[in-house]
């Protein structure tokens, strides 16, 4: 599309004929992200609320298409990279965020923990206590008990910025830092409360203990998890007690977001997230 053609299309964004606008919208969306800077400039220069609203919707649709494409590619080719999956979800709400800040903060947490571990031979429990001290006491990460259903609890950049999150977002940050230290700590898809498992390095299928990240890294034993499942009248099965894969984590985050947007009565975003969830079912 030439510049003149693009300018002509943009000039018709306030056309009262909705059928004509739909054709324009379709053409602009098919152009992809490259047109967003020009659309943003047009929005700034416009004094027409209708045109501005339509531009906002077109930009959102272009960005949402990108998120859908990235999520599908992630599942097919890069599902072993949890952080990449989390960043894709982040782009839904924060398409222009500074992603380097997330990587920097995680690297800082890893570096602080590594410094504490590098000279000592520590047991798994001692390593977890060190991580707890760095992540919860020094960095200040904690569960958002006052606003548990806030959608922001599911976006990693906001959790790192506000230092408040829900069980799964806190667990993801904790596991990402731990795995960068070569600690065998992985997510467990426990119903109602996502936790982490510290696996036995000499026997990878064996769980040494569990970590309740929402309770500042409380160490839990297998009998604690079994008792919790019995309270929920659920079977004690590997599905609930063994580590899950990254797509399962991403799906649970998306389900949390669906519930969160329902809680704040934002059905547009709720439906967007439901579409993302369908892509990785």
Key descriptive features of the protein:
281 residues; alpha+beta; 2 domains; SirB1_N; Protein SirB1 N-terminal domain-containing protein
Report a brief summary of the structure.
InterPro entries: SirB1_N. By secondary structure, the protein is of the alpha+beta class.
Write up what this structure looks like.
This protein folds into 2 domains: 3-77; 96-279, no CATH class. The chain is 62% helix and 10% strand. The protein has 13 helices and 6 strands. It has helices at residues 3-11, 18-30, 36-45, 49-77, 82-93, 99-117, 124-138, 156-162, 167-180, 222-231, 238-241, 246-263, 267-279, and strands at residues 142-143, 164-165, 185-188, 195-200, 203-212, 218-220. A 4-stranded antiparallel sheet has the order 3-4-5-6. It has a two-stranded parallel ribbon with strand order 1-2. β1 (142-143), α8 and β2 (164-165) form a beta-alpha-beta unit. The longest helix has 29 residues, at 49-77.
Question: Layout of helices and strands, plus pairs?
Answer:
Blueprint: H1 3-11, H2 18-30, H3 36-45, H4 49-77, H5 82-93, H6 99-117, H7 124-138, E1 142-143, H8 156-162, E2 164-165, H9 167-180, E3 185-188, E4 195-200, E5 203-212, E6 218-220, H10 222-231, H11 238-241, H12 246-263, H13 267-279
Overall morphology: elongated
Return the string of H and E elements. Answer: HHHHHHHEHEHEEEEHHHH
Helix content: 55-70%
Count of β-strands:
6
């Amino acid at each position: 599309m030439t510049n003149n053609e693009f300018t002509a299309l943009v000039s018709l964004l306030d056309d009262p004929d909705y059928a004509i606008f739909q054709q324009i919208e379709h053409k602009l969306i098919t152009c992809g992200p490259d047109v967003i800077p020009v659309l943003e400039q047009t929005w700034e220069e416009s004094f027409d609320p209708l045109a501005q609203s339509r531009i906002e919707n077109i930009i959102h649709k272009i960005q949402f298409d990108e998120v859908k494409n990235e999520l599908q590619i992630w599942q097919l080719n890069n599902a072993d990279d949890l952080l990449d999956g989390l960043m894709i979800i982040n782009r839904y709400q924060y398409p222009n965020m500074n992603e380097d800040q997330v990587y920097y903060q995680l690297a800082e947490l890893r570096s602080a923990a590594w410094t504490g571990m590098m000279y000592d031979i520590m047991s798994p429990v001692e390593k977890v206590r060190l991580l707890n001290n760095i992540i919860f006491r020094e960095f200040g990460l904690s569960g958002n008990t006052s606003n548990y259903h806030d959608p922001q609890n599911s976006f990693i950049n906001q959790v790192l910025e506000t230092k408040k999150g829900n069980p799964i977002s806190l667990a993801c940050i904790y596991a990402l830092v731990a795995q960068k230290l070569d600690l065998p700590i992985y997510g467990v898809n426990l119903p109602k409360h996502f936790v982490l498992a510290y696996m036995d390095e000499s026997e990878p299928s064996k769980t040494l203990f569990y970590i309740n990240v929402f309770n500042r890294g409380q160490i839990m034993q297998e009998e604690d998890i079994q008792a919790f499942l019995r309270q929920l009248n659920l079977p004690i099965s590997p599905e609930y007690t063994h580590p899950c894969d990254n797509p399962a984590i991403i799906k649970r985050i998306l389900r949390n977001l669906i519930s969160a947007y329902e809680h704040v009565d934002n059905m547009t975003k709720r439906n967007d997230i439901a579409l993302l969830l369908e892509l990785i079912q």
